[in-house]
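Question: does this match?
>
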Amino acid sequence: MDKQYFTELISNQIRYVRLEQKFTQERMAYLLGISKKTLSQIEKEKKTASWAVIVTLCALFEESTALKKAIGDNPVDTVQFIALEDSDPPKDKRLGGGIWWRELKSSGPFRLQQNIISKHYRILDFHNYRYSSSFSKKEMMSRMNELLKQCPLQPIFKK
């Protein structure tokens, strides 16, 4: 998923997020830092929101059901991933997978997962901290091997 595709995808969700929050167009436009006219054009799909508007929307409404359904992940994580262009994001605590992630490999304290919607990969440890993300499976397999070499731990299982 690239920046342009993500921007178009989330632009198409702005109306649903607004309705989900029970906001008027005036209120939503104010929160996003755009005019009501611009918001109306975005909602009617006559215009695509800017990257700044998309980032603002994802930051303000990261728990939105509409956004999570559209991308199958936390919207802020996806924004970070796209903005950092496949670089390792800061290690942060994740929920571990749930319905949006398919586990591909588990080795030592690490798990390689793939998002079923965006198709990107991530590596989590046994505490669900994210170590790396990328759209390249080959890159993630290599990164997982690097992490395993650096980690003296034997496989640890959750209780």
In short: Residues 108 and 148 are 7 Å apart (CA to CA). The first strand starts at residue 101 and ends at 107. The radius of gyration is 18 Å.
